[in-house]
């Protein structure tokens, strides 16, 4: 990138005030044009037409340098954009992977909670059956005790009546 020479031909010429006019093929920034206008030697004033060939060569060299710098800058910016794009893509992929892992963890936790709830429901049903069984047993025992108590009461009442009748008959 930018290492090879350009095959594009650039034609330019100087006007009467020795300003540079690009005739075909290149766009130059204002800063490049300003630098091209600067005198390359410390002498001031108008230069001779004989040194115009040297200035043309110097000018061509400076333009080539400026074009190479501009091309390198564009290549660098394009590379930065590509790297930034790759970085964004990696971040997106990483974010998606993180989200996927979080979703899977949440699903696993939800499944675990569901299984735990089912286990507790089974335990609760088992306890309920056991309580019903105990309730039936104790009701049966209570019924037996009440029956026995009623029998004892009947027997006791009969014995009391009999004893009362005997005492009454004896002390009459």
From TrEMBL:
<keyword id="KW-0999">Mitochondrion inner membrane</keyword>
<feature type="region of interest" description="Disordered">
    <location>
        <begin position="28"/>
        <end position="57"/>
    </location>
</feature>
<dbReference type="GO" id="GO:0061617">
    <property type="term" value="C:MICOS complex"/>
</dbReference>
<keyword id="KW-0519">Myristate</keyword>
<dbReference type="Pfam" id="PF05300">
    <property type="entry name" value="MIC19_MIC25"/>
</dbReference>
<dbReference type="GO" id="GO:0007007">
    <property type="term" value="P:inner mitochondrial membrane organization"/>
</dbReference>
<keyword id="KW-1015">Disulfide bond</keyword>
<dbReference type="InterPro" id="IPR007964">
    <property type="entry name" value="MIC19/MIC25"/>
</dbReference>
<keyword id="KW-0496">Mitochondrion</keyword>
<keyword id="KW-0175">Coiled coil</keyword>
<keyword id="KW-0449">Lipoprotein</keyword>
<feature type="coiled-coil region">
    <location>
        <begin position="107"/>
        <end position="134"/>
    </location>
</feature>
<dbReference type="InterPro" id="IPR052632">
    <property type="entry name" value="MICOS_subunit_Mic19"/>
</dbReference>
<keyword id="KW-0472">Membrane</keyword>
<protein>
    <submittedName>
        <fullName>MIC19 protein</fullName>
    </submittedName>
</protein>
């Amino acid at each position: 990138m930018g290492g090879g020479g350009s095959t594009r031909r650039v034609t330019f010429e100087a006007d009467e005030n020795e300003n540079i006019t690009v005739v075909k093929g290149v766009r130059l920034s204002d800063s490049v044009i300003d630098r091209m206008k600067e005198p390359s030697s410390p002498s001031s004033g108008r230069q001779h037409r004989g040194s115009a060939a040297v200035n043309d060569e110097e000018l061509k060299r400076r333009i080539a340098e400026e074009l190479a710098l501009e091309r390198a800058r564009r290549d660098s910016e394009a590379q930065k954009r590509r790297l930034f794009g790759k970085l964004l893509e990696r971040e997106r992929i990483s974010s998606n992977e993180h989200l996927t892992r979080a979703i899977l963890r949440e699903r696993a936790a939800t499944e675990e909670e569901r299984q735990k709830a089912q286990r507790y429901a089974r335990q609760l049903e088992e306890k309920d059956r056991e309580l019903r069984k105990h309730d039936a047993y104790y009701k049966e025992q209570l019924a037996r005790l009440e029956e026995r108590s009623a029998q004892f009461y009947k027997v006791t009442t009969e014995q009391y009546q009999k004893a009362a009748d005997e005492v009454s008959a004896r002390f009459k």
